[in-house]
Write a structure and sequence with these properties.
Helix 2 packs parallel to helix 8. The strands form two sheets. Strands 3, 4, 5 and 6 form a four-stranded antiparallel beta sheet that branches. Strands 1-2 form a two-stranded antiparallel sheet. By secondary structure, it is mainly alpha-helical. The two termini are about 75 Å apart. The protein folds into three domains: about 130 residues, Arc Repressor Mutant, subunit A; about 80 residues; about 150 residues, no CATH class. It has 16 helices and six strands. The chain is rod-shaped and about 120 Å long. The relative contact order is 0.07.
Length: about 400
């Protein structure tokens, strides 16, 4: 292989340690015996971004290779080509002289070719009497042979990265579409959840998309969008579970039926049923619209602190839930009248849920009774719904640092 000893550039062009390293790398590389020159050129072209090469530099390299007569670069051939700048420019689609010199410099800097300058800086070859080239000055293509395996590996790596980029970009497009439509259906169908926050998060993620994203940019955006997709899906899934829950697991207002002649109203003196009243609890005056429905399992997941106050230290039914709420009501200092008003407005189970939520946030509430009366007043005016408060507790208790009671 035509490597020779270390060479330095002619004229004012300086020698650098980088150029020294490139020549040593070419000399010490595990060089293949021969390699097809256009295959190496394709590999360099595929890996051009990794090598720091522009498209015009590739055009110049293509022209240089066209001056090498054989189809293969091999150890037993002279690997130096010596075209003039005019000849190179003609074969590089008429590239300007200044641009040509810049491209040659970038090819040398990238270790694709090595300069072998003559004493006067001209490019030429000396031939023997038999017409064989004895010595030549110009550009050595030896690095293309020496680094052929490296260039092939770089090209394969770039191709794999491009495949990953396309796959991740497709995934981002799909999850972005899904999140956009799921947020829309959540808003339009008035599904309980913080949809305004989800919308703001979606807009923020999309607003940070790069115009020309890298693989890392796509990966970061995909991770963020996936997290938002999980949160939006969770809100919709919780709503779907509520809709499919068994009617016996739902207790609000007239939805609560008593198979026992005793009523939960008897837990407080003012709740005693009048003579002749139907065993089914009627929908009391002051309720706004249809009663909300939530499965007991969801309520206990959101408000685990109330569980120890149930009979025998657990809660397995709505009756036990309301019994526990009365105990907690007293413990929190909520007056019987405030609790009765809440029951009349939100239903007995609704009031129990409100008490359970207040217990969860007891450290942040100065007056539990005043807070409950405020919620009751808003519910009467149609300005309050238990859903957002309950789902907020579900999210709060989903944190790894929070342990359910």
């Amino acid at each position: 292989m035509e490597t020779g000893f270390l060479t330095t550039p002619f004229g004012r062009r300086p020698m650098t340690l980088a150029l020294v390293k490139r020549q040593f790398d070419a000399k010490n590389a595990n060089t293949p015996t021969a390699v097809e020159k256009w295959r190496v050129f394709r590999d360099v072209g595929d890996a051009r971004a990794r090598l720091g090469l522009q498209d015009r530099a590739l055009a110049v390299l293509n022209a240089l290779l066209s001056f090498f007569p054989a189809s293969e670069l091999s150890n037993d051939k002279n690997l130096i080509v010596f075209p003039s700048n005019a000849q190179l420019s003609a074969r590089a689609n008429g590239i300007a002289g200044t641009t040509l010199r810049k491209c040659l410099g970038s090819l040398v800097e990238a270790g694709i070719i090595i300069r072998k300058d003559s004493p006067n800086g001209k490019r030429y070859a000396r031939k023997s009497g038999e017409g064989e080239i004895e010595d030549a000055y110009g550009f050595s293509l030896a690095p293309l042979l020496a680094r052929a395996t490296e260039f092939a590996a770089l090209a394969q790596d770039v191709a794999a990265e491009q495949r990953r980029f396309r796959v991740m970009k497709d995934r981002l497009t799909i999850v972005r579409r899904d999140v956009r439509k799921l947020i829309t259906v959540g808003m339009e169908e008035s599904v309980p959840g913080d949809w305004a926050a989800a919308e703001a998060c979606f807009i923020d993620i999309v607003g940070r998309f790069a115009r020309r994203p890298t693989l890392d940019d796509i990966a970061a955006s995909l991770d963020e969008m996936n997290l938002l997709h999980e949160e939006v899906s969770r809100m919709l899934e919780t709503h779907e579970e509520i809709q499919k829950s068994d009617g016996n697991d739902i207790a609000f207002g007239c939805h609560i039926q008593n198979s026992n002649t005793e009523s939960c109203n008897e837990l407080e003196p003012r709740f005693e049923r009048k003579q002749g009243e139907n065993s089914e609890i009627k929908k009391l005056p002051g309720r706004k619209g249809e009663p909300e429905v939530f499965p007991l399992s969801l309520v206990l997941r959101a408000c685990p602190e109330i569980i120890p106050f149930g009979p025998s230290g657990t809660i397995g039914s709505w009756r036990e839930m309301m019994t526990a709420a009365v105990t907690v009501r007293s413990m929190l200092g909520v007056s019987p009248s405030a609790y009765e008003d809440a029951c009349e407005t939100m239903g007995q189970a609704g009031a129990a849920i409100a008490i359970a939520c207040i217990l969860e946030r007891a450290n942040h509430i100065n007056s539990a009774g005043g807070y409950l009366r405020d919620l009751t007043g808003k519910a009467e005016r149609g300005e309050f719904s238990l859903g957002p408060m309950l789902f907020a507790q579900v999210r709060a208790n989903s944190s790894p640092v929070r342990q359910a009671g």
